[in-house]
Amino acid sequence: MSDPAAQPPALPANPPDALAGGRLSDRVRLVRNVLPPLILLVVIVVEALILRLHDPVLEVWAHLLFYGLLGPSVTFFSVEWIAEGTRARERAEQELRGLYGQLSASHEQLRAVQELMRDLTDAPDLGAVLDVAARGAVRVTGATHATLSVPGGLSGTARGETLLGTPSAALYPLTVSIPGGGALALHFQRPPSPETEALAHALAAEVATGVEAARQRTLDLMTLYSVDQSIRAERNMRRLLSRVTRMMAERMGAGARAVYLSDQDGVLRLEYAQDRRGETGGGNPAPPFAHRVAEAGTPLLTEGEEAAEVFAEAQRVLGLPMRDEDGLVGVLMLGDEQPDTFDEARVPLLALMAGQATLAVRNARAHVYSEELAISDERARIAREIHDGVAQSLAFAALKLDIVTRQMHRDPAQAEAEVRAASTLLREQIREVRRSIFALRPIDLERYGLLETVRRYVEDFGEQNSLRATLSVTGEIHLSPGDEAVVFRLLQESLNNVAKHAQASEVRVSLHGGEHLTLRVQDNGAGFDPGQISGRVSSAGGLGLLQMRERVEARGGHYRVLSSPGHGTVIEAEMPQA
């Protein structure tokens, strides 16, 4: 705080009371030490002069004149001289009391300003900053009312020791602008002094600092939230890095960004980069500065030629290591053409965001690995299905056709029957291949959403399998993306089992949203005994009833199968809504 009004006034080199007291003591000492000898000397001189008159009458009048007039006059002027010193001392004491009062008021203002600065620093958000600043302005300036407003429609008000609920026309207003936008409006019972106006301007500057700090904290939180949302919503590595680095670059005003990730051999290679020329990638080796950041394990800044090796036109580059408990994941780079782009106060925030990006990369890599495992499992399942089902059936059909070749002339009727049997078997296997292809078609849940994807799938399922398939949807449905994938996978498995095993003519699918989402698949097929085959792996999708139950219960839901031979099957799954 640099406002002069808030600084304690400096004491004079020689305080007035000390000067007045010194003068008064000197006068009393002078009168005490000099006046008696002087009076004695004057009396002796006067008496000697009177004795020379040799006239008793003149001597009497001379004594009356001297002792009756001159003595009291000398006494009066001596006392008046001392009284003037006393009055000077009283004036000095009054000046000292006034100076002490000013000093006390200044100290009180300084204490109030310091408390205001501390409260502004501790305020959690912009609204709290405005309320704290308004109350502090009332406390510091002695105003009856204070209103603080900033761009965006936010404001804070405070009232001092007054019975008025709102400012009135009898008060004296004072409005000062806040640097960066906004105004501080104060109201006083008396016209504000120049010192008060100067103090109000100084308060406005401090408030502007507090408001800007609150805005920066809000922006930091919003940026962290956006990064967190990007991590949750995006699994594609390139799009993920693009989003995260874009938000970091926008927060710092950087014009270029890049991410180097460590490959399976521990070599840092370029995964994603963007500057003024556009996006690039391709696995190029990392520059020396990236290796230096990786070895240091802390954020580093570089300039000059080393910065130009990272981004061709960059004057300054900030490197952030991406590490987790398993070691180095990569290095994140931000660069710009301006040499003063990066504020070192924001580096801890960027380091935190780089840590979030590290988790995102780990998650994306784990997702890619799980997809590779799923593809491998699906290939194994398809191979098993072809080997155990279609391949054996086709081999059997080929065997029958070989028999037909030998019986064609010997027993034409039997040969014809064998051809019909082989034809029936081939048509059944064609239907089986179509069912497998239908079950393997990629489903874009992210593009269409759960409800539209389910509607399309149920409709296509009925057409592909020549049965009546209906869908009923009630209530509000709002699941997380992971839960939506589980629900749809359950629907796929249930319908595939209907197509392969139920021998049904109708299947009804319903989705009901409430506190839980309930999926119900009911067919009018042959039914079965769940106790006998609940652990068996289905040939349609690789998941048996036990595996489907485990998936649902892992998400906090419930799963049950109701079936009996000759009475169809009902499959129900409940999942908690997001």
UniProtKB/TrEMBL annotation:
Any idea where this protein resides?
A: Cytoplasm
**Residue span(s) of domain Histidine kinase:** 381-578
Q: Which of the seven top EC classes does this enzyme belong to?
A: transferase
Catalysed conversion reaction: ATP + protein L-histidine = ADP + protein N-phospho-L-histidine
Q: Which Gene3D superfamilies match?
A: 1.20.5.1930, 3.30.450.40, Histidine kinase-like ATPase, C-terminal domain
Q: Which UniProt keywords apply?
A: 4Fe-4S, Cytoplasm, Iron, Iron-sulfur, Kinase, Membrane, Metal-binding, Transferase, Transmembrane, Transmembrane helix, Two-component regulatory system
For this protein, the parts annotated as crossing the membrane are 34-54, 60-83
What SUPFAM superfamilies does this protein's entry cite?
ATPase domain of HSP90 chaperone/DNA topoisomerase II/histidine kinase (SSF55874), GAF domain-like (SSF55781)
- What is the stated purpose of this protein? Member of the two-component regulatory system NreB/NreC involved in the control of dissimilatory nitrate/nitrite reduction in response to oxygen. NreB functions as a direct oxygen sensor histidine kinase which is autophosphorylated, in the absence of oxygen, probably at the conserved histidine residue, and transfers its phosphate group probably to a conserved aspartate residue of NreC. NreB/NreC activates the expression of the nitrate (narGHJI) and nitrite (nir) reductase operons, as well as the putative nitrate transporter gene narT.
Name of the protein? Oxygen sensor histidine kinase NreB
Instruction: Name the source organism.
Output: Deinococcus hohokamensis
Taxonomic placement: Bacteria, Thermotogati, Deinococcota, Deinococci, Deinococcales
